[in-house]
Each structure stands twice: as C-alpha cells, then as structure tokens.
C-alpha cells in the first residue's frame, strides 16, 4: 500500500512548497537569485548538499546547454561540466529521457548505471545519493536538475514525489533568467561561409544537393566540409548538426557560401 505521507505535502512541508511555488512565479534575474531560491525554498523540502540546474535543447545524441547554475557545487566539478553533453557519456540522463520519471541514484546500489567517469566523479567529489528530474517543454527545451548528497532520511519514494512536484516550478524560474550566450567562449568562430555550410547540413542537404543548389562542384563541397569538421573538431555530419545551435544556427535558408 502506498504511504500517503510520502506522496503529499502536509503542515510545514505544505507551507514550504507553497513558498517555492510563489518564489518561482517571479522572474529570476540572475544565477545568484536562482541559487538563493534553491537554498531558501528547495532545501527545506529536499535536504541535500549541492545541486546543479541546466537549461538547453537536445538534438540527436547531444544536450546543448544554454544555462547552467551550480548551487554550492565543488568548483572543480562545476568547471568540468561541458556546454555540450553527449548522451552516451551520461547514461543517467539517457535513463531519465527514456521515461521522464524522477530518478534516485544510490552510488553503491546503482553503480552499474554510472560510467567509469561518472563513478569517479561521485567518489572524488563525494556526491553521494542523487535525485534527478527535468522538464521538456513544447519547444523541446530541456531543463534538468540534479540534487547531490541527499539526506538518507528522505526515502526514495518521497524524494521522487518531491522531484516530480518541484521540477515544473524550477523550470519556470530557470527559463525566466536572461539567456546566456549560446556559444561556448571556447568554441571556434565560424566564418559566414562556414555558417552557411553548417546551415545546409542542418537542413539535411547532401553534398550533391548543396553543389547543385549553389553552383559549386562536389569536390568544392567536400573540401569545405572537411575543413569545417576539422575546425569544429567533429568527424560526422550528425555531430556538426548537433552543435550547430551553439553557433546560433537553426533551420533557416542559408545563403550562398561557395566562392
């Protein structure tokens, strides 16, 4: 039989949840305000040591991060977080995407779910027991929240209920923040020609189609693609398309790029 006290807010927890809802309904001006919101309103509901929130979009096998806010996270760990995440490197995210239900990860019980790299992170930074959940909106924007070092006093069932309840409101707060630049400062700057070529890739055009549409030879297209892939440090068209949003490139009609 389901324990109703695990799947409901009562007394102090009901008041804490209402305060969180009201706080998330107001625009969140910056990362510091979001951090304060989590410390003030989330911690009483879901005791934990630190958390991280990301906001971005996903395509193919990548999550492209546009917002990332750490709350009391070890700086060394936070600095390692890339702005592009390959799902193959983060099976916890893949598991969440498979059913979009809250997850509670115990570092011992669920060791097999972690990659070697993730397990090393858990051990090195003492991440402990983690709760993760997120929201995907109608525009396919994805907000993903991870709470590490969760109190053992909170059962898995209770933690999942809380995660399910708070994620939509945290998503609203995170989405209300002024958008960070979509390009990683470390990303190479593309020339107009390279941006236009990437745009054709996003549209799914083949080499021969690009050559015909722009009046170029197939050899010219192939050479330009090889140079583009080297600059982006990718090996395939799919990888180039996956990181196109980092350069502000979406489904739009490119202009002429061949010289």
Walkthrough of the structure:
The termini are far apart. A hairpin with a 2-residue loop joins strand 1 and strand 2 (62-71). 42% of the residues lie in helices and 16% in strands. Mean pLDDT is 84; it is low at 180-186 and 251-259. The protein has two domains: 4-175, 2-Layer Sandwich (Beta-Lactamase), CATH 3.30.450.80; 192-247, Winged helix-like DNA-binding domain superfamily/Winged helix DNA-binding domain (Arc Repressor Mutant, subunit A, Orthogonal Bundle), CATH 1.10.10. The chain has a six-stranded antiparallel β-sheet. The protein has 259 residues and is an alpha+beta fold. It is built from ten helices and six strands, in the order H-H-E-E-H-E-H-E-H-E-E-H-H-H-H-H.
List keywords for this structure.
single chain, 259 residues, alpha+beta, Beta-Lactamase, Arc Repressor Mutant, subunit A, 2 domains, six-stranded antiparallel β-sheet, 10 helices, disordered C terminus
CATH topology of the largest domain: Beta-Lactamase
Average the pLDDT over all residues and give the rounded result. Answer: 84
CATH class of the largest domain: Alpha Beta
Number of domains: 2
Q: Based on DSSP secondary structure assignment, what is the total number of beta strands?
A: 6
Distance between the termini: 71 Å
Helix amount, in percent? 40-55%
Radius of gyration: 21 Å
Main-sheet strand order equals: 3-2-1-6-5-4
* Structure class: alpha+beta
CATH architecture of the largest domain: 2-Layer Sandwich
The total of helices stands at: 10
Shape: elongated
Give a quick account of the main beta sheet: strands, pairing sense, barrel closure: 6 strands, antiparallel
Secondary-structure element order, N to C: HHEEHEHEHEEHHHHH
